[in-house]
Write a structure and sequence with these properties.
The protein has helices at residues 2-47, 59-66, 340-360, 369-390, 406-419, 428-438, and strands spanning 49-53, 71-73, 78-80, 87-91, 95-99, 105-110, 123-128, 131-136, 142-158, 163-174, 183-194, 198-200, 203-208, 212-219, 225-232, 241-245, 249-252, 258-260, 266-274, 281-289, 292-294, 297-301, 305-311, 316-324, 327-337. The chain is of the alpha+beta class. Strands 2, 3, 5, 6, 7, 8, 9, 10, 12 and 14 form a ten-stranded antiparallel sheet that branches. Helix 4 (369-390) crosses helix 5.
């Protein structure tokens, strides 16, 4: 029994000691794991801030700091650095920004192949904006950033959309490494404003150095150039803006889709020149295929317009072209349609006019109404086609110049049927026709 008690006590003591040693070992292992984790967290917290003394700042940054013009920016916050502070503390991703004096500088850059949509020489003139960002990229390398604007496509007229369309590129250029693309911890944000109808996109978030963002411009009523204002997230002492050229082009103002063919209808063609016109006036040559325009050459002054007259020929599709050296040409399609409306209205108007005149007379003529109707149809048709097709007025009436439409065709033919054609009234053929129709033996 005593042996059993001794054995139990010894077993319990050994088990307790082994359990305690095992617990101590586990605690030590957890402590060893926790120490590096805490050190890493502390190191991460420290790495999230960057402290720059005044001597570590470049001369330009020290000058801006002294003037109270040094800005600390990131994608969400903007703060002016306190002037003459001994240390500048930046959060991770923050950049120091300065608005440099003067307007954007025009410099020449050689862009990588494939950046510009248009092929050809990649050495182009760019506008370097007087906004400077200094700080570190995501890989902690030092960056010195200037936004630059690259005109890509001058605004050209699009007849399909009836507007001028173009594009430009915005690049966040790193002067320290212009051929290397580096990611930033925080985006550099820029807003764009303009008199144009549309800028797309108008809010830029630039997250990579030396990478480009394409901005499309649409303007329906441009002048010689379009002004684009660049607005960073911090307040500027003066505006930063660039001007984009508008390519000069001839414009054929609002032509209808169709006109009556076979020379019956004439059309006034208004010609103007829009865009960056460096001359006081340009000479524009006009052609119509088929058809003809008079005059076939007009002079258009800056800000003005000129007029020409199109004469239709036959039926079918026609093209009007306007060309001038150094200016984008204009082409417009127009349909010469069969003049069915003209034929029906001129015949009907002349016939009704003749019958109305006969019925309104106190002493009615012996002429058969149907003969008077057909005579009126002929008179109305001849009157209308002479007036609208040739510009000849066969009536002894003053008729003001009116637009070609259904009412004027019918009205002119009606007058022709009512009063007759003065130029034909005294001809032998006309006298014989009415003499035969009024004789007792005339056909009925």
């Amino acid at each position: 029994m005593l042996h059993g008690q001794l054995h139990g006590q010894l077993h319990g003591q050994l088990h307790g000691q082994l359990h305690g040693q095992l617990f101590a070992r586990r605690a030590l292992a957890l402590l060893c794991l926790a120490i590096p984790t805490a050190a890493s967290a502390q190191s991460t917290a420290v790495s999230r801030t960057r402290v720059l003394t005044r001597t570590e700042l470049s001369p330009r940054l020290r000058e801006a700091l002294k003037a109270g013009a040094l800005i600390a920016v990131d994608s969400t916050r903007v703060a002016t650095v306190v002037p003459d502070t001994p240390r500048v503390v930046l959060r991770a991703g923050q950049l120091l920004a300065v608005r440099e004096a003067g307007a954007p500088r025009i410099e020449r850059r050689k862009l990588p192949a494939g950046v510009l949509a248009s092929s050809g020489d990649t050495s182009v003139k760019v506008a370097v904006l007087p906004i400077w960002f200094s700080g570190q990229a995501k890989d902690n390398s030092e960056v010195s950033l200037h936004p630059i604007v690259v005109p890509e496509k001058a605004l050209r007229y699009s007849a399909q959309h009836d507007s001028f369309e173009g594009s430009f590129l915005v690049i966040l250029e790193d002067r320290n490494a212009p051929d290397v693309h580096r990611d930033l911890r925080e985006a550099v944000k820029l807003d764009l404003a303009s008199d144009a109808d549309s800028l797309s996109p108008h809010e830029l978030s630039l997250t990579r150095t030396n990478d480009h963002t394409r901005v499309s411009v649409v303007w329906r009523d441009p002048r010689d150039s379009v002004r684009v204002q660049i607005l960073p997230t911090f307040r500027l002492t003066e505006d930063v803006a660039v001007w984009l050229p508008v390519r000069p082009t001839v414009v054929l103002e609002k032509l209808p889709s169709s006109v009556a063919g076979f020379g019956i209808q004439t059309l006034n063609v208004m010609v103007s020149v829009l865009g960056d016109l460096r001359r006081d006036s340009v000479r524009v040559a006009l052609t119509a295929t088929p058809g003809f325009i008079e005059p076939n050459e007009v002079t258009v002054r800056r800000g003005g317009h000129a007029n020409a007259t199109l004469h239709s020929t036959g039926s079918g599709q026609a093209t009007i072209s306007a060309t001038s050296p150094g200016v984008d040409r204009a082409d417009a399609a127009i349909q010469y349609s069969w003049p069915v409306d003209f034929l029906v209205l001129s015949l009907l108007g002349g016939g009704i006019g003749a019958v109305t005149t006969q019925l309104s007379r106190a002493r009615r003529s012996k002429t058969r109404p149907w003969r008077r109707f057909f005579a009126g149809c002929l008179a109305g048709f001849v009157t209308a086609i002479a007036y609208f097709g040739l510009g000849v007025n066969l009536l002894q009436l003053h008729i003001p110049n009116q637009l070609f439409n259904q009412s004027t065709v019918f009205g002119l033919a009606l007058l022709g049927g009512m009063f007759g054609i003065a130029a034909l009234a005294n001809t032998n053929a006309t006298k014989a026709f009415f003499a035969a129709s009024e004789s007792p033996g005339g056909a009925s």
